[in-house]
Automatic annotation (TrEMBL):
It comes from the Bacteria. GO terms for molecular function: catalytic activity; molybdenum ion binding; pyridoxal phosphate binding. PANTHER family: MITOCHONDRIAL AMIDOXIME REDUCING COMPONENT 1 (PTHR14237:SF19), MOLYBDOPTERIN COFACTOR SULFURASE MOSC (PTHR14237). This is MOSC domain-containing protein. It comes from Pedobacter chinensis. Pfam families: MOSC (PF03473), MOSC_N (PF03476). Residues 122-267 form the MOSC domain. InterPro entries: MoCF_Sase_C, MOCOS_middle, Pyrv_Knase-like_insert_dom_sf.
Length: 270
């Protein structure tokens, strides 16, 4: 097999908003630094995502000078920024799927900006450093923890897998539909399905569970418009136990830097 190299590195600081492409990133205990450390919730503390609110695709995020900046992709003058460390008040109980966690509201003015955009009352919360939201214990033998991501610290997809899908589509889709953290070049389509463990710059990753896909991948990340593809086509050849799989969820051991260009060394295969 030809060698595998990390070709893309992405974080999504605010869950379900636009991602940031990086050349290098620090990987911490709960995943890539700043990845999904913030999240929008409704008044009851339930998490809010593009699955229901497609317009969130229109909000892009960047990080500059220790500030997080959010702006509208079609109208960059509509923006807000705040310090990465900014929070107010006591912890708020928040819910992601079946998990109860804790969040700290960033500020009332930031929450109002998002509420005005969404035309409903929401809060922007940050995960406190002390919060230990655990990965599903069936897949996390060492009590691994996770951010506000759906369930796992990182997601990996091979370029060949997307190329294979796009050969079946009349209109190609970009990788941003699938919101991976790690993208790699080399290997055949869906070779990541066979990963058991691999190393990137001495950090050990385990591919513990295929990623089940939902309607979010049908939302154009530049326009917020929902269609049928690529979910419809994937259903024809990537269905397992009535779920549509694309990419692999990861847990990891160790902390350190990983960079685009790093060789991905598979230690053992499924």
């Amino acid at each position: 097999m030809n060698k595998l190299y990390l070709s893309g590195l992405y974080i999504y600081p605010i869950k379900s908003l636009g991602g940031i492409s990086l050349a290098t990133s620090h990987i911490e205990e709960r995943g890539l630094q700043h990845d999904r450390r913030w999240m929008l919730t409704d008044e009851e503390g339930m998490f809010i995502t593009q699955r229901k609110h497609h317009e969130l695709a229109l909000l892009q995020v960047s990080i500059e000078n220790d500030e997080l900046i959010v702006f509208h992709k079609a109208d960059p003058h509509k923006k807000i920024s705040f310090p990465l460390e900014q929070t107010i008040g006591e912890g708020i109980s928040v819910k992601i799927w079946d998990d109860l966690s804790e969040g700290l509201e960033v500020s009332e003015s930031v929450s109002k900006w998002f509420s005005d955009f969404m035309q409903m009352k929401v809060r922007l919360v940050k995960m406190p450093a002390k919060e230990k939201r655990k990965v599903d214990p069936r897949y996390a033998p060492n009590d691994e923890i996770v951010s506000f991501a759906d369930g796992y610290p990182c997601l990996i997809i091979g370029e060949a897998s997307l190329n294979h899908l796009n050969q079946k589509l009349s209109v190609s889709v970009p990788m941003d539909r699938f919101r991976p953290n790690l993208v790699f070049s080399g290997g055949e389509a869906h070779v990541e399905d066979r990963f058991n463990t691999f190393c990137l710059n001495d950090i050990l990753f385990s591919a513990v569970k295929p990623c089940a896909r939902c309607v979010l991948i049908t939302i154009d990340q530049q326009t917020g418009i929902k269609g049928q593809e690529p979910l419809k086509t994937l259903a024809n050849y990537r269905r397992v136990n009535n779920k549509i799989m694309f990419g692999q969820n990861l847990i990891h051991q160790g902390k350190g830097m990983i960079s685009v260009g790093d060789e991905l060394n598979v230690l053992d295969w499924k």
